Amino acid sequence: MLRQPQLRRRHRRHDSYIRPSGSYQFQSDGVAPSALRRESIATSSFENHGVPGGALFETTTAVIRHVLSSNHPLSAPGETLELVQYIIPAWAVLPVHMHPGVQMATVASGTLTYHVVSHGNVIVTRANGIGEEVGPGEMTTFTVGDSWVEPVGMVHFAENRTAESIVLISTSLLDDDEPPTELVEEEPAMGEPAG
């Protein structure tokens, strides 16, 4: 039985479109290309440095957060709509965090292990079109073409348990006055695979 997610509901009018010379143009108060940015996000990773059966050593790695497009839609005053590419290096473990808005993502390459800690459920659509929901204390694996929706304030974290980088494409509608990610001082429970 699927649990209903607790999503913040918003009723918005649709933004208008203009069609000059056969192309569509989105009406909004846009963000200058110079405002688009590439940031690093510190993570942890664990490696055994090639020693068979050796102990794991914690290292620091960086997730790259590359803002591809950013806008302030007229229909969502006080919020920023972003299209972001994340590059998650091999063996990286992202910190427990939440977002001050709704975020949707898909895997462009690699395999992501994803954990829901608390405060909501993630809505998943697999590459084959099958939908599922992952709740607190549960874990799932996302592969190429899988997508998901994270509700406002859902506490979660993810990790790359492979030797290859993962590339995610994400769209977010976030509060202007908040950072895109808020770290949470909550001990993660390594969840059971969602069934």
Notes on the protein architecture:
This protein is mostly beta strands. Helices cover 0% and strands 50% of the residues. The chain contains no helices and 18 strands. It has strands at residues 17-18, 25-26, 29-30, 38-47, 57-72, 79-88, 92-93, 97-98, 101-109, 112-118, 122-125, 131-134, 138-142, 147-150, 155-159, 166-175, 182-183, 192-193. Strands 3, 4, 5, 6, 7, 9, 11, 12, 14 and 16 form a ten-stranded antiparallel sheet that branches. A four-stranded mixed sheet has the order 15-10-13-18, with no helix packed on it. The radius of gyration is 18 Å and the shape is globular. The termini are close together.
Q: Architecture in CATH?
A: Sandwich
CATH class annotation? Mainly Beta
CATH topology: Jelly Rolls
The CA-CA distance between the termini, in Å, is 11 Å
Largest sheet: 10 strands, antiparallel
Look at the helices and sheets and give the structural class.
mainly beta
Number of strands: 18
Q: What fraction, in percent, of the residue positions are helical?
A: under 10%
Corresponding CATH superfamily: Jelly Rolls
Instruction: List low-pLDDT spans.
Output: 1-38, 43-59
- Envelope shape: globular
Task: Tell me the domain tally.
Answer: 1
The DSSP helix count reads 0
Percent of residues in beta strands? over 45%
Tell me the series of helices and strands, N- to C-terminal. EEEEEEEEEEEEEEEEEE
Report the mean per-residue pLDDT as an integer.
75
Report the C-alpha radius of gyration, rounded.
18 Å
